[in-house]
Amino acid sequence: MFERFTKDARDVVKGAYVYVEGSGGGGRCVEPEHLLLALLDREGSRGSFALAALGLGERRESVREALREARRRAGLTQAETDALAGLGIDVAEIVARVEETHGVGALAGDRTDKRWWSGRTSFGREAKGVLERSLRVALAQRDRHIGDEHILLALTAGPGVPAEVLADHGVTYASLVRVLYGSGGEAQAG
């Protein structure tokens, strides 16, 4: 599948690895959030054009902050947090207690003591799902190659924190399709 990726799409994947391995991401697996962070760093690509056209250019830091907050909640979406609140479970209180005992970022996997992990960075199940969905999105749009715009579309087409954060900032699958393909490209890839 990677042979179908454009240079921009490969750069997004490489950038996601940088977030995991560097100081920006923590953890040992590339997750969908890392793909979104790498997309936010892009300039001069179809994906970055689409984000700018939807007004996200000047609000990228707000997206990064929303992703950081979701990581502190152990990757729970706001909808999941609200559902737990409906059951009487206060996620903010749980995060505060865990962080009080184990340090800030304990639920996010951002611990600085990573001696227990000596393996290689890999792709998490959800990130693999995003890449597979990006292929389906490209096929649905009748595009021969998978570009960074298809990864962005795939992030908005699935469930999870990146889709929720982007939607909260006015970036949805439908709005991206309109920007990238005009009104005629409404095919949904599941």
From TrEMBL:
Keywords, in A-Z order: Hydrolase, Protease
GO molecular function: peptidase activity
InterPro entries: Clp_N_dom_sf
One GO-annotated biological process of the protein: proteolysis
Protein's name according to its UniProt entry: Clp protease N-terminal domain-containing protein
Annotated organism of origin: Streptomyces tibetensis
